[in-house]
Amino acid sequence: MQKGKSTLLFTDALKLKRPNAFQVMLKPAGPACNLNCNYCYYLEKSKLFGNPATTRMSDELLEEFTRQFIEAHEVPVVMFTWQGGEPTLMGLDFFRKAIEYQKKYSGGKRIDNAFQTNGTLLNDDWCRFFKDNNILVGISIDGTEKNHDHYRRTRSGAPTFKRVMKGIEFLHRHSVEFNTLSVVNDYNVSMASETYRFLKKTGSGFMQFLPVVERISDNTDDKSLKLVAPVHGEAKLAPWTVGARDYGEFLITIFDEWVRNDVAKYYVQIFDATLANFAGENPGICVYNETCGDALAMEHNGDVYSCDHFVYPDYYLGNIYETPLIDMVKSQRQFDFGIDKRNSLPRYCLTCDVRFACHGECPKHRFLTTPEGTPGLNYLCEGLKMFFNHVKPYMEFMTRELKAKRPPANVMNWIRNRENQAVRQARPERNDPCPCGSGRKFKNCCAGKPPWSFQAAGNL
Ligand code: SF4
Ligand code: SF4
To answer: Which residue spans within 57-189 are E strands per DSSP?
Structure first.
């Protein structure tokens, strides 16, 4: 999945997305990780490599990839995206070499790096390195201690929250910019406000909320992957999978808080992407784009797959020692993979009012059948539809502001004015029950105070 900063509210990433500008999620330590989070879809990928004791990218491969990746780009900025497994397992020297190779092969292009980590191994040395090299760090954290530790544990089952917070302290100490990636699962989904407020307190300026949707095969063969691709057929939902409707409510709760208080102060990837789609711009994230296929994944041994979400044998494109990276990116197979996101949408999606914002989300999650019985509907459809319909009036307002070259953050005043007006119109009589819900009479409660509660006046 494409990760990082998005479009209109944040950076000029949009301008960078052109032909021959693609991403490769790099897995320098393969699926290896020092943690063992219950819902992780990547740990079991070690089966693809015969379960070796270690999976580590060699310096030789690092150099080869760096050369090919930079040369293949026809744009002035190239983004390296480090992921896992856990990339810090490679040690700092590996990444010092990565920077050396980037300088060696840059050919005048600007090189950026994004580094996704569970944060537990960060220390002064790592953070000094991130700062010195202007590396954008993404921290995986699922919210408050209780929410985070529910699934994110070590191999021995120990909680990890305190170690992650220690890592965040190091980032702050060295003034390293970081964003957060939170997996929305069956457990933390009911604690949206709590999660959002907590993440703001950590200092995260840019938040990603990724829904976890996995299916487990009944196959008892230990050598096969248990978490299956959507085309697999019969499989049962993994217990940590988020409910579709719950996910929609989670997003709506955070959105309502954000759009009233935090626009242009905090960035939430799906809100940014949605605004871009309303404005007819590139959403900057593959799942809400019409087509995909320009975010590949490369393993520690040079094996390249169509996408980080499709590291399955059927989506293997080749190895960069045998096939040049650009040939894989430009291959018919990869083209078909990306265009299929649009071409395989069922009629139900094609006639959906919010398709322009949703685009059927990620193909990995399309394993339901539509009410007409056509396969290929996204498991999250119900929640996505709720969310996109809910945000519509606010997005339309912000789009108008953008087109008039005014800040979209004006939406906060617009809401305040609308809600104050609604409150005034709904002003109850002295002896009516107070709209704040206290159960007391209005005259004994909120009468005479400024508008008592935006919620009490109903929605827009
Ligand atoms: S399958 Fe497509 S939409 Fe889904 S994560 Fe991969 S690139 Fe993005
Ligand atoms: S909201 Fe549902 S029907 Fe509409 S495009 Fe998304 S997945 Fe398809």
So the answer is: 77-82, 110-117, 136-140, 178-184
Give the pLDDT mean for 274-280: 98
Asked if pLDDT for residue 246 goes beyond 50, the answer is yes
* CB-CB contact of 355 with 381 (8 Å): no
- Counted residue by residue, the chain has a size of 460
| Active site residue ranges | 308
Contact of 252 with 375, CB cutoff 8 Å: no
CB of 363 sitting under 6 A from ligand 1: yes
Burial readout 409-424 (b: 16 or more C-beta within 10 A, e: otherwise): bbbbebbeebbeebbe
Q: Which residues of 285-309 are buried (b: 16+ CB within 10 A; e: fewer)?
A: bbbbbbebbbbbbbbbbbbbbbbbb
The answer, yes or no, to whether any atom of ligand 2 lies below 6 A from the CB of 352, is yes
> Which amino acid is present at 90?
M
Return the CA Rg of the chain: 23
Helix H or strand E encompassing 147: helix 145-151
Cα distance between residue 211 and residue 184, in whole Å: 5
pLDDT in tens, 385-403: 999 999 999 999 999 999 9
CA of 300 to the centre of ligand 1 (A): 20
Span from the CA of 88 to the centroid of ligand 2 (angstroms): 38
